């Protein structure tokens, strides 16, 4: 029997961000949950927007001057945030559930490049999907509302910002879900924390006296982040970009805590 001897592999394989991002992209597109959650995100953004636009066109308002046609077309964004947030949680907790996170950390000993690679990959994927989805929802919704002369255009003040801001808001929610998943390392806990952070504060503060709840409401995660997706500013919310910046700060804090814990704890 002849033995076959192979020469040792002499090329050094350095861990770079491009290679980490490429690896995370392979993981993301290989997950079945990615297909379902991204499909649900698009379906909710477009489908709910069309359904709500059809409903409002069938029941036109008595005073068209107070009608926010942009918000009607983008009504699905508020539901789509759940689908994209859940995908953000699953993108990392799935590795902890199967134990494959150990292989990921062995390949990226520095650990943090793995987390940032996931964040960059997931954030760009979500943004590239969300932008066309909200544009289709807006244009299709306006075509329905045009039958009752309730439509608007992207050139109107605040409309383009609201449309693109909706895509940015979905991206930030997805990264928030990723951060919570990395922090808690458990799918059920991550999803529960995501829902609690997005919706529970409004319920709790709603039980307080009106003066107190109105003062705190503008600083809560969802009202702050969603302000960028509205053409007309609600008096009890922050300015659009200020509110979105605050939501991004919440997301950055969660990702920062996840990074701190990733360096301190074993997989």
Automatic annotation (TrEMBL):
The protein, known as: ABC transporter permease
GO molecular function, one term: ABC-type transporter activity
Transmembrane parts of this sequence: 35-55, 75-94, 115-139, 159-184, 191-208, 238-260
GO cellular component: plasma membrane
Organism field: Couchioplanes caeruleus subsp. caeruleus
Recorded superkingdom: Bacteria
Keyword annotations: Membrane, Transmembrane, Transmembrane helix
């Amino acid at each position: 029997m002849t033995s076959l001897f192979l020469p040792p592999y002499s090329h050094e394989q350095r861990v770079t961000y491009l290679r980490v991002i490429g690896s995370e992209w392979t993981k993301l597109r290989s997950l079945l949950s990615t297909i379902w959650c991204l499909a649900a995100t698009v379906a909710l953004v477009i489908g709910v927007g069309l359904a709500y636009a059809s409903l409002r066109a069938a029941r036109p308002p008595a005073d068209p001057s107070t009608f926010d046609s942009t918000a009607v077309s983008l009504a699905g964004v508020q539901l789509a945030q759940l689908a994209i947030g859940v995908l953000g949680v699953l993108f990392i907790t799935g590795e902890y559930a199967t134990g494959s996170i150990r292989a990921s950390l062995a390949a990226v000993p520095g650990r943090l490049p793995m987390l940032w690679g996931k964040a960059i990959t997931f954030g760009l994927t979500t943004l590239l999907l969300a932008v066309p989805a909200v544009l289709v929802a807006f244009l299709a919704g306006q075509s329905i509302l045009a039958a009752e002369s309730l439509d608007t255009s992207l050139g109107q003040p605040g409309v383009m910002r609201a449309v693109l801001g909706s895509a940015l808001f979905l991206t930030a929610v997805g990264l928030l879900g990723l951060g919570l998943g990395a922090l808690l390392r458990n799918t059920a806990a991550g999803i529960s924390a995501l829902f609690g952070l997005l919706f529970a504060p409004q319920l709790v503060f709603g039980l307080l006296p009106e003066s107190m709840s109105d003062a705190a409401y503008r600083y809560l995660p969802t009202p702050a982040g969603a302000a960028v997706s509205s053409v007309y500013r609600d008096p009890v919310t922050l300015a659009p970009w200020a509110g979105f910046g605050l939501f991004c700060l919440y997301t950055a804090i969660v990702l920062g805590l996840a990074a701190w814990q990733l360096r301190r704890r074993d997989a």
